[in-house]
Design a protein that fits this description.
38% strand; 182 residues; five-stranded antiparallel sheet; 3 helices; GDYXXLXY; GDYXXLXY protein
Length: 182
């Protein structure tokens, strides 16, 4: 009898954990979209062969280097923290890279893939912008023609994580741009 109660309690705890993990994962990204600080990142031209994989736009960012902060012993492939700032024009950039988690300010967790004298090269973790599949071909053409000139991604950042909120072509969102007559 005692073992049945213990097994029942264990079953309930495991069931609650199984339900809580996916709910937490979904909530975390939605929380960043709702309460994270918005940065505008200028995007770079994409490789036409890898521009789309299914229903998302594959983004590249011009920003991928930053000075290493402190006398950190950075190891290639190591998770580091990219400190995010805005320039006078409101564009986001990586102001520095540190192996230590910053105590204040905005940052994202990244991997260092190369290193120069006092400089680290990183890949920003938000590179996929998802959209409805029926819009994908038109979005691909519009983005490919204008990325690097007027393509900007609005990214919400909070507690080391970033989520792409919107993709802009010029002053218009991607959806507004696609709705206008061509």
């Amino acid at each position: 009898m005692k073992n049945k109660r213990l097994l029942l309690c264990l079953f309930i705890v495991v069931s609650l954990l199984q339900a809580a993990v996916p709910l937490y994962m979904a909530w975390r990204w939605e929380d960043i979209l709702q309460t994270g600080h918005r940065f505008y990142w200028q995007t770079a031209p994409v490789d036409p062969a890898d521009a789309f994989k299914g229903r998302y736009v594959d983004l590249r960012f011009k920003e991928d280097t930053a000075p290493i902060i402190g006398a950190d012993n950075l190891i290639l492939g190591q998770q580091v923290y990219a400190l995010i700032a805005e320039n006078a024009g409101g564009q986001a950039y990586i102001s520095g890279v540190s192996v230590n988690r910053p105590e204040q300010g905005y940052y994202v967790k990244v991997r260092a893939y190369a290193k120069g004298p006092g400089t680290a090269y990183v890949n920003l973790p938000f590179t996929r912008y998802y959209l409805p599949e029926n819009l994908a071909p038109a979005a691909e053409n519009a983005y490919r023609e204008r990325a690097g000139k007027t393509g900007v991604a609005a990214v919400r950042i909070k507690d080391g994580y970033g989520v792409i909120e919107q993709l802009y072509i010029g002053e218009q969102t991607l959806y507004e741009f696609l709705r206008q007559p061509q």
